[in-house]
UniProtKB/TrEMBL annotation:
Belongs to the class I-like SAM-binding methyltransferase superfamily. RsmB/NOP family. Residues 2-309 form the SAM-dependent MTase RsmB/NOP-type domain. S-adenosyl-L-methionine binds at E128, D155, D175. The keyword Transferase applies. The chain holds residues 124 to 440 of 470 of the full protein. This is SAM-dependent MTase RsmB/NOP-type domain-containing protein. Keywords: Methyltransferase, RNA-binding, S-adenosyl-L-methionine, Transferase.
Length: 317
């Protein structure tokens, strides 16, 4: 399959932004305009509810929502299924006392998802170091009605974990820059990149992996953090399982101590898990999620979750 063909096999995913509208209201609006809950590939107007992500809908890939009133009013957000996993796995509490961080936020799809899961309560600090992407983030947050978010135009790595402002932070989402090798409409570009000198490619991935590891270790230094989700849209073990392994072996993880959350807390019904040969035990591999482009009707993706505590995790289901 070419990248375009693979992209055509992926439904158009639409997340209902429960901050701006109820699922009932959105469904009613869709049905009133001729959409039918008959499955995404039954006809151009057919759609379905996703089986893993609450409030996610699947449509025919050729349907465009750019001019749709629901999109313009922020009631729906166009977001690939796999990229809905990190916020779900982080599962921030919906309470006035909740304080969490999205360390790498722009353009803000996961930030608005986190905000919706928190029912717009508590406080969500959203870091973005790039100035242009930061203004996109702010626009997107205001369109999505996320009033519990404080966007911060700064490098997450330069923030002091012991700053009293962040002392109550318990949950951190890390979705840092990666090679993007899982993004389906980039597969053609990737095939070209394959012909790139292998040492150049390895060097680039190693640099990304070193940065990703630094981000996880920095997150582990926040004194009250108890749950950290690390995700990428890469298909390379160098940026995924190997980064997680190195993070688990770091001084920061030992000090926590941090370990991987068990499968029961990381979308247990999603069948595709981490690469066993890249991890220290089958349980570790089972604790993390992979999505493969062309296989899972999503982009390529990876999700892992670190939890603080020395107690053995509850046994699997
Ligand atoms: N989570 C976003 C979403 O779902 O819409 C996508 C995040 S994108 C993969 C990574 C972002 O992190 C980029 O916008 C990049 O500029 C930003 N970034 C990279 N390093 C950073 C750092 N040290 N501190 C803050 N932001 C950073």
């Amino acid at each position: 399959h070419s990248g375009d063909e693979r992209a055509a096999l992926i439904p158009r995913y639409v997340r209902i932004n429960t901050t701006m509208g109820t699922p009932a209201e959105v469904l009613e609006s869709l049905v009133s305009r001729g959409f039918v809950l008959s499955g995404p590939f039954s006809s151009k107007k057919g759609f379905a509810k996703d089986s893993h992500v609450p409030n996610l809908l699947l449509f025919d890939p050729n349907v465009s929502f750019q001019d749709d009133p629901l999109y313009k009013s922020g009631k729906i957000i166009l977001q690939d299924k796999a990229s809905c996993f990190p916020a779900l796995v982080l599962s921030p509490p919906a309470a006035d006392s909740s304080v969490i961080i999205d360390a790498t936020a722009a353009p803000g799809n996961k930030t608005s998802h986190l905000s919706a899961l928190m029912e717009n309560k508590g406080k969500l600090y959203a870091f973005e170091r790039d100035r242009k992407r930061f203004s996109t983030l702010k626009m997107m947050l205001s369109k999505a009605g996320c009033s519990n978010v404080s966007p911060i135009n700064a490098d997450f790595l330069t923030t002091d974990p012991n700053d009293p402002q962040f002392s109550a932070v318990t949950h951190i989402l890390l979705d840092p820059s990666c090679s993007g090798s899982g993004i389906v409409n980039r597969l053609d570009y990737l095939l070209e990149a394959e012909s790139e000198d292998d040492t150049v490619k390895d060097d680039r991935l190693d640099k990304l992996a070193a940065f990703q590891l630094m981000m996880i270790k920095h997150a582990m230094r926040f004194p009250n953090v108890k749950r950290i989700v690390y995700s990428t849209c890469s298909i390379h073990a160098t940026e995924n399982e190997r980064v997680v392994r190195n993070a688990l072996n770091s001084d920061e993880a030992k000090a926590g101590p941090f370990q991987l959350a068990p499968r029961s807390e990381v979308l247990p019904t999603w069948p595709r898990r981490g690469y066993g040969e890249e991890m220290e035990s089958p349980e570790q591999a089972d604790s993390v999620i992979r999505c493969l482009p062309g296989e899972d009707a999503t982009n390529g993706f990876f999700v892992s979750c670190f939890i603080k505590g020395s107690h053995a995790p509850p046994t699997k289901r």
